[in-house]
Prior knowledge:
Elements: H1 2-10, E1 27-28, E2 36-37, H2 40-67, E3 92-95, E4 100-103, H3 104-112, H4 131-143, H5 147-159, H6 163-175, H7 179-191, H8 199-206
Helix pairs in contact: 4-5, 5-6, 6-7, 7-8
Amino acid sequence: MMSAAADEVDEMCASCGIPAGDDIKLKNCTACYLVKYCSIKCQKEHRSQHKRACKKRAAELRDELLFKQPESTHLGDCPICFNPLPLDPKKSAINSCCCKFICGGCLNAWKLMENTKETCPFCRTSVPETQAEADRNYMKRIKANDPIAMRQIGAKRENEGDYSAAFEYWTKAAKLGDAESHNQLSIMYQEGKGVEKDEKKALYHFE
């Protein structure tokens, strides 16, 4: 009975109380989805009462969307919050100082803190001001056998058209267990980009 009553409340305009019907179509508050209204007029009239709860729930929904991820990905976890890194590359970033991928949520939180915008949120090192400086950092990490740095420089060499160098860096990174470098090698063998086409090797690196 309580559930049915709750459903009835959900199907009433939060402002005037009119129930939904064939002639009355209720629309959700698009910010929080907690309440429904029969008209824009009712929504405006109810705004002062609803504002606080709406703002709170809207913030919760943004956080849920930001941190909603599968249990694990081949990219690993964010080293700060330990949530799986997003599959969308636009929702994470890497700094060349430590070669750690940081999720967008932690990056945004770091930027909101005072006096932190020009430093890495993981190792606290100053962020490189130029690409040349970033490349030098990557090369230092490569000397320390960092597969992520090898992957990044491999991608840079591919973009420059130097497929031989890209293949070399990705091969080294793959041997160190970097899954994304294996994927790039698979594509190279499949498309014959810088190497002879080889379906068996493409499948090997893909698996």
